[in-house]
Structure formats: C-alpha cells, structure tokens
Amino acid sequence: MSNQPPTSMEERRRQRSESHASSTYKSFLKDLEAKGLSPEEYAERAATSVLCCLEQRIMGAEAQQLESQLPSRLQELLVRCERHEGLPPSKFGRAEMLRVVSQELNVDVGTAESATRAVLATVSEHISQGELKQVVQQLPKDLKTLFPEMTLH
Questions:
Q1: Omega within 30 of 0 (cis) for the link into 39
Q2: What distance in Å separates the CA atoms of residue 152 and residue 147, rounded to the nearest whole number?
C-alpha cells in the first residue's frame, strides 16, 4: 500500500487532464518528428512559428476555432505569441510566410518550406476536416499549396 495520502476526485481529474494534454502534445510532436522535424525543440519552434503565421492570416474567430482543436500545450505557446496579439488578419502570401518562418527558425527558405509543409500536414491530421476546410478557404491560392494535396479537395 502506498504511503501517499489519497487525493480528491477533483485532483485525480486534474491529473488525468494534464496527463491527456501531455500525451496529446507529445503525439503531435512525434508526428512532426516523423515528418523530419527534429529534435523536439526544433519541431516545437517550427509548429509555433508556422501556426502563428497562419493565425495572422485568417480571421480572429477562425483562428480561435483552429486553436481550440490543437493540443492544449500548443495553444499555450500560441497565446504567448506576441507577433499577432490583437492585430487584425494580415494579407500576405506564400513568399512572405516562408520568409518569416525562415527568419524565426534561422534556416533557408527551402528548409522553412519543408518545415511549414510538415507542420500544416500534421495540423491537418489533428483537427477536424470541417475546421481544416474553413481555414484553407480563407487562404490565397499560393498559401493553400503548402497544405497536403488531399485537404484541397
């Protein structure tokens, strides 16, 4: 028998919730690593950079809906993203997005494009198809091409 005091039902729920959040986030990062984004710290930075850019491009309500379907640990990183805090959506295309991601990750544009594609493919796997369709519909054609082909139909 354990020497630890019994925990309240509320405490056990909180622990389960934290465990689930951690496992969902780890699953997201593992999916990124499987797509070539490693180590884990780089995968996390890439996800934050790409999603912050994407949120800058889409309408505020849609950005909130997208965030709500992402792992909570990733949501926390995006909330702290100061780049788009309180700003209206910005009109930019593929070249500008890749330039920003390239600068933030300190990589060349080709590597930034690979990272962006990996993040968007992983997001596509982790959110509902309805939400994905709503996000993609708000983007210009050149940005849509960064998503996996299957999401464009």
A1: yes
A2: 8
Share of the chain above pLDDT 90, in %: 59
C-beta pairs of 15-21 under 8 Å, 24+ apart in sequence: 21/71, 21/72, 21/73
Half-sphere exposure at residue 130, Cβ-oriented, CA atoms within 13 angstroms: 2
Q: In which residue are the tokens 């500008």 written?
A: 96
Question: Contact, 109 vs 102, CB < 8 A?
Answer: yes
Give the DSSP letter of residue 11.
Answer: H
pTM above 0.70, yes or no: yes
Q: Which domains does the chain have, with CATH numbers?
A: 17-146 (1.10.490.110)
Count the alpha carbons within 13 Å of 140 in the hemisphere toward its beta carbon: 11
Is the Cβ–Cβ distance between 107 and 115 less than 8 Å? Answer: yes
How far lies 64's CA from each of 8, 34, 67, 102, in Å? 33, 27, 5, 25
